Amino acid sequence: MNSDKITRLVLSLGSFILIIVAAGMVYSLVMGSIPAFKTFGFKFIFSNNWDPTYGKENYGALPFIAGTLISSILALLISLPLSFSASLFLGEYFKGTRVARILSMLVDLLAGIPSIVYGLWGFYVLRPLMIELGIGSQGFGVFTASLILAIMIIPYATSLSNEIIAMVPNDLKEAAYSLGATRLEVIQTVTIPSAHSGIIAGYILSFGRALGETMAVTMLIGNSNKVPDSLFGTGNSMASVIANQFGEADGLKLSSLIAIGLLLFLITAIVNGIGKLIIKRMQ
Amino acid sequence: MNTTENIRLQDTSKRRQLKDKLVLGMVVFFSLVTVSPIILIIGELVRKGYRQISLDFLIKNTPDTYSAMTAIANGERIPGGIANGIVGTLIMVVLAAAIAIPVGIIIGIYLYENPGKRLANFTRSLSDVMQGVPSIVLGLISYLWVVKHVTNGYSALAGSVSLSIMMLPMIVRSTEETLKMIPNSLKEAALALGTPYHKVILRVLIPTGFSGLFTGILLGISRVLGETAPLMLTALGSSMINLDITKPTSAVPLLIWEFYNDPNMIDLIWSSSLMLMILVLVLNMISKQIAKKTK
Q: How far is residue B217's CA from residue A52's CA, in Å, rounded to a whole number?
């Protein structure tokens, strides 16, 4: 065998490693969750009873699925006006200027802050603010967690949609300007219509990120094992329950936590898959 | 055109201009709101954290709760530092990089060399999916693989494995994107001279794309440096410097989590977070600078 063939073999070997790793991930999660699904069946997903009392153990994932979805959707809604404004600022109004470079640098810095630092800041700065505003006596809750999540996903949503907005061809915009359209009208009739699918994909991907955030949510959502009764009530998320209860878990509880991990894996894979598919279609 | 019609036209035009200005104002306002947290967060970290930072903070291990408590009661500075975390973070990140970089670059080159191939497309999609997997799930997986079967307990190795799975897709994509930007003629020239394929890769592709690859690697490292969740499930933490990768090990983010849960250690939270932030931001900025220079 000549050296070229060996080189090609080594290169494709990498592909196989990745496939084996990915398959191994799914295999381990599925094997680990079998005891939980065997005991509770599909009721595991729809039951909201989480009772670790020995002898009458009962685990259901609904409170965590609900908490994850509610806090992430709320975070997306909060971040929407902010990140959309920032992407218009960067990609349309001040495109290529010095002030846009500074703003984009600050947004990048926001993306570099570790989750646990966001959590600390939320706990010591945002939570007291919530108490002052009278939102929950402790300041914990789905809303507080969503606020911090919103700040955390803003950089992703902003940079993804800014890139798409900046790509809108100038000729189209100039044509609209020459007809006497104002900046706002150009944005409404040219920029947004031709960039909308990319912008939506950007928000889907940021939503996927919010679903899996762990530390910041753990420190702020209140960690109560029930379906949140209001947007300001306490709850728990799938990632947080794994982080919080993993240390003391074995047997059926461990398997239930792994099953929650498998569900979280599937949800984020589907959400991210849809986002990437839309972006791929655009190119 | 009669005068009333003219006035009406002027009116709508004015209203349109006004609306335009109003939206611009909103965009600027919301953009400022968007970046305000970064200033508030860094301000908070510096304000509360700078006092604890000293040489001791970098070279001593974390104190136990009791000595922290007595120090606070006597009105002294909390003794000790985060050396065990710094060493642990270094070990785990270096190990994770050592696993992820070669594999990631090989896969990236493969994807670049076989753009239309079905296996390459499948691999690319898989790596996209892996990039979206929450880090806590990577922790679970590494627990199932390494903690349970390889090291028979919490270990630095398990921590590195979870971090390396996290870095891998980032390095794959940055390698492929970098190589795509290299002009094809360069490769063709080398091949035309009869250079063997592996030499084209090692002597032409990698050196030409080096800064791009390096940027991707630095970004990957700065991303995993601050990870806490997967390490809680794998490395667990330790109050001492530990060089044995099969034993529980600490990391700076893990220490922050411990300090957060221990009322006596609160003062140490901010200084360790400040340290972590500085490290992450410096790496981030270096990589951006390199990327800018080569563009």
A: 43
pLDDT (tens digit per residue) in A94-120: 988 999 999 999 998 899 899 999 999
Look at residues A189, A198, A201 and name the one whose alpha carbon lies nearest to residue A165: A198
| Residue B293: Cβ within 10 Å count | 8
CATH of domain A64-282: 1.10.3720.10
Instruction: Looking at the structure, give the CATH architecture of the domain made up of residues B83-252.
Output: Orthogonal Bundle (1.10)
Cβ neighbours of residue B61 under 8 Å, at least 6 residues apart?
B80, B81, B83, B84, B239, B240, B241
Q: CB distance from B18 to chain A under 8 Å?
A: no
Q: What is the pTM of this model?
A: 0.94
Show residues of chain B in contact with A212, CB under 8 Å: 132-137
CA-based nearest residue in chain A for residue B231: A243
| Structural domain spans, chain A | 64-282
- For CA atoms B18, B21, B23, B25, the dihedral sign is negative
Considering only CB atoms, A29 lies closest to which of B141, B168, B228, namely: B141
| Partners of B236 in beta bridges | B249
Among B32, B34, B121, B162, the strongest candidate for a mutation testing the A interface, having the largest count of A CBs within 10 A, is B34
Measured between alpha carbons, how far is B109 from B179 in angstroms, rounded to an integer?
Answer: 8
Degrees (nearest 5) of the Cα angle A212, B36, A76? 35
pLDDT tens readout for residues B218-274:
999 999 999 999 999 999 999 999 999 999 999 999 999 999 998 888 889 999 999
